[in-house]
Design brief:
heterotrimer; A mainly alpha; B mainly alpha; C mainly alpha; A: mainly alpha; 3 helices; 70% helix; B: mainly alpha
Chain lengths: 119, 504, 100
């Protein structure tokens, strides 16, 4: 039953094996000269400043929250889009318009409440 | 598309409440900050209209045969059962808004969001009572929950409110995870999510398929049922899923607590009864013992914890757990379902009146920032403010279940159902639990009437008209339901019968 | 063909991981992520049931769960944020003005 999955397994083993072998070989054969410049992160000239675990501005949260909401509502349009052309005809179009209209009201609400203003 | 305007017409009260919520939100955008207090009044309009519609529909059916309509296929059922619970939700919401009018202004809460969320929560409750299909049930459960999570934390300035909201949200979302998993397993076992068909037209429903395929011992189905019970028991504040109740009730703004303790619990029980008596009625022997145990645990622990409380708000929170236990007794009495369902509905209405009434008095006595909620703040209330003390006394003896009050008859009908279902043990526990509850309810009365305080320590009370109206309405309901119960009880029984199979 | 039971097993394991996460972790955000894991575990079993029964009810439910989960994320993040403003922490052990 699982036979058709064998090639995938084989591919997986080969890919992982190849990667591991190459890393191992290069660490074995490569030259290591650890100068101060080389050990610094990002060999591009600028030293890292401060911690990477900064606290982000709360405004990002508000935008992110709104994004998630409107992003996922689009999922509900997908089954409608698949069936619209063949089956739903005008009724489906009107219902989708009502749905999007409600979302639009929500958007206007967020806009008017100032949720999208950066300052 | 088979949806017709007539089907939408059956949803009139729900749609009115929903449009009311949208109207409040939009008005909030365009009203200047100072004028936003009118929003509370605006919110009362759709609630009142919906209540009128529902009462008229019930009145029209009270004499003749009950009417039952399927809406959107069989997703929703417009039957006297859902109408009866709509009355409970709408009364709770109207009282809740009346309590909020002054409070929202005093504590500077965002009025638009507050009233809109209240209306959304009511909409969720009404849909929950109507839904006869598991997906619809889940969606309404979430509409209700999300609105109430935010309401619990709407007093953003107070740390306890935010904390109550966080606890409620985390545990609530956890419980809804169990609920959806339960739905998934039941769907897997039966291949449908429709609970039952009261008109007997379709056999491919959960209750029909259990009989047809003999799924009585099906592991998937039983596991699914167990998870569903967990998910709803959480909302209904049933031990051992009650950990959030005292903290959330204490931390949430008082009017929200009042609305929540009555409305959310009634909605949970409405869905619970429809689930068990409708979809899983053929598995009664399986779930009845479970409810038996849960009912005993809930009554015993709720009362035991309430005794120790010095804070009246927290005491009422624990006692509301105990009342959930009394309601569970009625659900466990499934062999006497012709009276059991009606007694659930009747008790939900009486609890709404007396519970919200008691919280209203807390608001009358309480001051800004939710001060004055300790038992000692009720010292000598009778001599200072006799009317407030009299109303509080009435609510307390009704909650305790003394004769001539609504609480007594509510308990009486539940006991009646339990005895007819041969649940003598459960009836005895209910009786004993009530006797224990006399202690902490009557203690409040004792503090009000039998103790005195020096004049200097006398504190003022809130005298807002809206509060007075709410207290008066609740008190009248308690007396009316206690002294002239026949109409309400007949309607509740009729509503309960619509849940039963045809020709029962 | 992989049998339905295999998918159900994966789903049950994921769900259990989510439950354990909620019970053990103390950071409100991570508890919240565990809850989302539970919901997605349910989605896996719903899709496999839908395939087994050969109709779309289960798949439709998955879409609705996704939408509800998004709403939950929005509300949840806002609530966690408002707690953070008061307490400067999202560790549920430190959120204890009232007894748990």
């Amino acid at each position: 039953m699982l036979k058709e999955y064998f090639p995938i397994l084989l591919m997986l083993v080969l890919a992982i094996g190849f990667g591991v072998t190459m890393i191992f070989l290069s660490s074995l054969a490569g030259r290591k000269t650890a100068t101060a410049t080389k050990t610094a992160p990002y060999e591009c000239g600028s030293l890292p400043v401060g911690s990477a675990r900064l606290r982000f501005d709360v405004k990002f949260y508000v935008v992110a929250i709104l994004f998630i909401l409107f992003d996922v509502e689009a999922v509900l349009l997908w089954p409608w889009a698949v069936l619209q052309a063949q089956q739903l005809k005008l009724t489906g179009l009107v219902e989708a318009a009502v749905f999007v209209g409600i979302l639009l009201l929500g958007y206007l609400y967020a806009l008017r409440k100032g949720a999208l203003e950066w300052e | 598309m088979t949806t017709t305007w007539r089907e939408l017409g059956y949803l009139t009260p729900e749609l009115v409440v929903l449009l009311g919520a949208a109207a409040v939100l939009l008005l909030d955008l365009f009203l200047p900050r100072g004028r936003r207090r009118v929003l509370g009044g605006v919110a009362l309009v759709p609630l009142g209209v919906a209540l009128g519609w529902v009462l008229r529909a019930l009145w029209a059916q009270s004499g003749g045969p009950s009417q039952l309509h399927k809406v959107f296929g069989a997703l929703l059922l417009r039957d006297p059962y859902s109408l009866g619970f709509d009355v409970v939700f709408l009364v709770a919401a109207i009282l809740g808004v009346l309590l909020s009018l002054r409070y929202v202004e005093r504590e500077a809460l965002p009025a638009g969001e507050y009233y809109a969320l209240t209306l959304f929560a009511v909409f969720g409750m009404m849909m929950m009572a109507m839904s006869a299909e598991l997906i619809t049930l889940f969606i309404s459960y979430e509409i209700l929950s999300l609105a109430v999570y935010v309401l619990a934390g709407i007093a953003r300035g107070r740390a306890v409110s935010a904390e109550a909201s966080l606890k409620y949200f985390l545990l609530g979302a956890f419980a809804s995870g169990f609920l959806v998993y339960g739905i998934a397993l039941v769907y897997g076992a039966t291949g449908t999510t429709v609970l039952y068909d009261p008109l007997g037209q379709s056999a491919s429903t959960i209750s029909g398929l259990i009989l047809e395929r003999g799924l009585f011992g099906n592991a998937l189905l039983l596991a699914g049922l167990a998870l569903l019970v967990v998910g709803i028991a959480f909302k209904a504040a049933i031990v051992p899923f009650h950990a959030w109740v005292p903290d959330v009730y204490e931390g949430a703004p008082l009017p929200v607590t009042a609305f929540m303790s009555a409305g959310v619990k009634a909605a949970a029980f409405a869905a619970f009864a429809r689930l068990l008596f409708g979809g899983f009625r053929n598995l009664g022997e399986v779930w009845q013992p479970v409810l038996w145990v849960l009912a005993v645990l809930t009554m015993v622990l709720g009362n035991a914890a309430a005794i120790r409380q010095q804070n009246v708000k927290r005491m009422l929170a624990y006692s509301s757990i105990a009342h959930a236990g009394y309601l569970l007794v009625a659900l466990a009495a499934y062999t006497a379902r012709d009276v059991a369902i009606g007694s659930v509905l009747y008790y939900a209405l009486t609890y709404t009146a007396m519970g919200v009434g008691a919280f209203a008095i807390l608001l009358v006595v309480g001051q800004e920032g939710e001060a004055n909620q300790e038992l000692s703040d009720y010292r000598g209330l009778a001599s200072r403010h006799p009317w407030a003390a009299a109303a509080m006394g009435l609510f307390m003896i009704s909650l305790a279940g003394f004769p001539l009050t609504a609480g007594f008859l509510g308990k009486f009908y539940i006991l009646n159902a339990a005895l007819r279902a041969d649940l003598d043990g459960l009836a005895v526990v209910l009786g004993l639990a009530s006797v224990v509850s006399w202690y902490y309810y009557l203690r409040v009365v004792w503090f009000m009437y039998m103790t005195e305080v020096p004049k200097a320590a006398v504190r003022p009370i809130s005298r807002a008209t809206s509060l007075g109206v709410a207290v008066a309405v609740a008190a009248l309901l308690v007396i009316a339901l206690g002294v002239f119960p026949s109409t309400a009880l007949a309607v509740a029984q009729m509503a309960g019968h619509t849940l039963l199979p045809l020709g029962y | 063909m992989v049998p339905t039971v295999a998918y159900l097993a994966v789903s049950a394991v994921l769900f259990t991981l989510g439950v354990v996460g909620v019970l053990v972790r103390r950071n409100a955000l991570i508890i919240f992520m565990s809850i989302e894991l539970m919901l997605n575990a349910v989605n896996v079993s719903l899709v496999s049931f839908a395939r087994q029964h050969g109709h779309a009810t289960g798949q439709v439910f998955v879409l609705l769960i996704l939408a509800v989960a998004a709403a939950e994320v929005a509300v949840g993040l806002a609530i966690i944020l408002s707690v953070f403003r008061h307490r400067d922490t999202v560790d549920v052990d430190h959120v204890n003005l009232m007894k748990w």
